Amino acid sequence: QSVLTQPPSASGTPGQRVTISCSGDTSYIVSNYVYWYQRLPRTAPKLLIYRDDQRPSGVPDRFSGSKSGTSASLAISGLRSEDEAEYYCAAWDGSLRVVVFGGGTKLTVL
Amino acid sequence: EVQLVESGGGLVQPGGSLRLSCAASGFTFSSYSMNWVRQAPGKGLEWISYISSTSSAIYYADSVKGRFTISRDNAKNSLYLQMNSLRVEDTAVYYCARAKDRLFDYWGQGTLVTVSS
Prior knowledge:
heterodimer; A: mainly beta; 6-stranded mixed beta sheet; 3-stranded antiparallel beta sheet; 45% strand; globular; B: mainly beta; 7-stranded mixed beta sheet
C-alpha cells in the first residue's frame, strides 16, 4: 500500500480535461514539494511537474499541477491519445529521509 | 543531452549478489545527487536509494536497508548499486535517476534484475 494515494484509473475522451489526485498526510504533501511523472508504455518515466506546479521545458502547457492542503492534483487539458500512460506522484519525506510514491494512475483515452 | 545508461542486470538466484552500474553523460555528474528507483512487474514505482553529489549523504528505503549499497565514482561519471542477499521480491526493472530536490528529473532506460531459482 502506497503512502500517497492515487486513484488506480482515470479516463477521458479526446479534448476533455481530466484530473488525477494525490493525497497524503501532512508530512508528505503539505511540507514538501510534489512531483508528477508520466510513464508511457515500455519507456522510462518522464518528469511532468516539479515543485508542485512547475513544468520543465518541453512539457506542454496542457499539463498543470496544483496543491491544496494535504492533496495535490495533476490536470491534463485537451486530452490526446498519446497521453494514455501511467501517472505517478512523489514527494520527499524530510523526517524519514525517504521518497514516497503514489501507487500510480492508469489513464485511458477512450 | 542528459544520458543515463544502466547495466549489470540479469538472472540471479535468491541469496545471490549483483552490481548495477549507471553511466552518466551530458551534465556535470559530480554536481548532482543521484537515485536508484525500481519497478517490479505489475507494480508501481519504488524509490530505493539516494546519494548526494559528494557521497556525504546516503539514504535507503527500508525494503533494501542492510542489503543494498549505493556508491558513485565522480571521476568515472558512474553510479553503482551493490545488491546482496537478493530476494524474489527484488525482481524489478532498476532505474538510475538524477536528483532534483531529492526527487528525480532525468531517468535512464532501466536494467532488468530477475531473482529466481
